[in-house]
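Exam review. A common question shows you a sequence with its structure tokens and asks you to describe the fold in words. Practice with the pair below. Do the first one on your own.
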Amino acid sequence: MTRTIRTVFSTAVLGGALTWAAPVAALSVISTNVEVDWDSLSITDQSGALVSFAALESGFTYLRADSRLNDTSSIGTPYTASGIWPTSHSVSNSNANAEGTAGIASSLLSVSATAQAEGTTAYLAGATADQHRATSIAIQQDITLTFSIDYLIEVISSTSLLGEGNSQYSRVAFYISHTPDENHPANNDSGSQPPVWDVFSLTEGAGEGTLSFTASLLGGESYGLEVHLYSSLEATSPWQEVPEPSILALLGLGLLGMAARRGSMR
């Protein structure tokens, strides 16, 4: 009896080593949407009174978007000055698709990105979009002002059972800057040319609310007020082989054989 069971166990192990099921496809989808309404911009003095600047609706906006598959960076779009029209870049094939978009609709600034990867081989799709809106304000006399603006960051992500997951980084930065001088020493290490003096508020990850900061500004100076929207994401679609149910049964029978053999030896 022990010999017969031992033969079955040996056959089960050999059969399990040679026979496996086909790869199982995995699906990963992720999308983000980042918005700031320029009309929600509020500037108040220390008493809480609203302060207005004629130049707030002027200034400039520039945008960029790109997309990539399997970690190969695409050229995407260059930074482009834009009116109300969005800029976008997309790539796709039979396994994946990705698109980054940045644009303006009336006063609403927005960037969005989406990526989907599916298949029976490991695949990656990614997209990035960012946008700047900037304007210049002239200060007549020394004053301390508080700047506020509303934002929204949405993230939707889903993966199949076998998916490894998705990743994303989204943020909104809101700040005021000045070219460094004796009154505005440089306080960043970004290596930008020229470096800037700035006071800012930053948020990262999904959510909505208000960004604000307070800055003491000097009369006779001009400052740059800017909001920066950014989102970058990746969807990955790995796969793994799953053994046939019959092989699992044979392996189980083999384990029973091992147990029976140990019992007969006692």
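Now try the second one, then compare your answer with the model answer below.
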Amino acid sequence: MSEAITLDAKWLLIGKLIKGEDGISSPKDSDHIHRRAEIFALDGSRTISFSTEESTSTIVWLSDSMHWAEVTKDRVSIHSLVKPSEIIHVPIDHQIDSNSQDDPFNREDDHVVTQNDHLISNLENAYDNSLTEFNLYDADLHSNPIKVTTTVLKIPADVHTELVEISPDGKWIAWKWFAYHIKNNNPWISWLQKYFPSIRNAPSIPSTEVWISRIDGSDMKMVGYMAESFQGAPPYSLSWSFDSKRLYFNAGGDTMWTIPAGN
């Protein structure tokens, strides 16, 4: 099940997978997976139901809070709250092999839509600590055909990535990772550590850190850290303010903390 709320906080979209033709459970169609989506006005005044074109499509709101997009590997279908029956189909122009398993728009929880309606996807690969780099895909949902650009992001060496969040303006990435560092505040020693593994015999400390970078991975800056830490330590969540200037995080309990992002 996927859920999304509009930026104006007036509409809620819920998509779910169910068995049966046209969303109706039936023993004869027990192997048929169908996706259905429902849109609710949060004031209770209206409900819209529709079936998606593919069970694996991604459904996202556009920034105007009046349109939603159903994204598959080959095209985007734009729907309107004003005229739900009128659908605009726009092809996706990208270089991804149609037979490839790497479909950046065919996943539930690894994408974000920015304030200028760019769909940024493939975020889950940031958590694969066996990788040294991964592709970030950016689809401009206002272009026709929809253009997809690919950015190769390098994952810093010797870190265990735990959280990755794209800023609403699509210009920044917030990272939370766990790492070991030499117990020395000299940045020159830390730099040498990356290129001379033998230095790792020096005393080291575990650290949970929050950094930001530009969307292309450049201009890395540390926002904060917690020394003598462990994998899975707080913060447990990480999100951006609407103006992309502050970070919010939860360090346990019911309290939400905020700090300047430093960008």
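Model answer, second protein: The longest strand covers residues 172-182. The chain is about 5% helix and 45% strand. Full marks require stating both points clearly.
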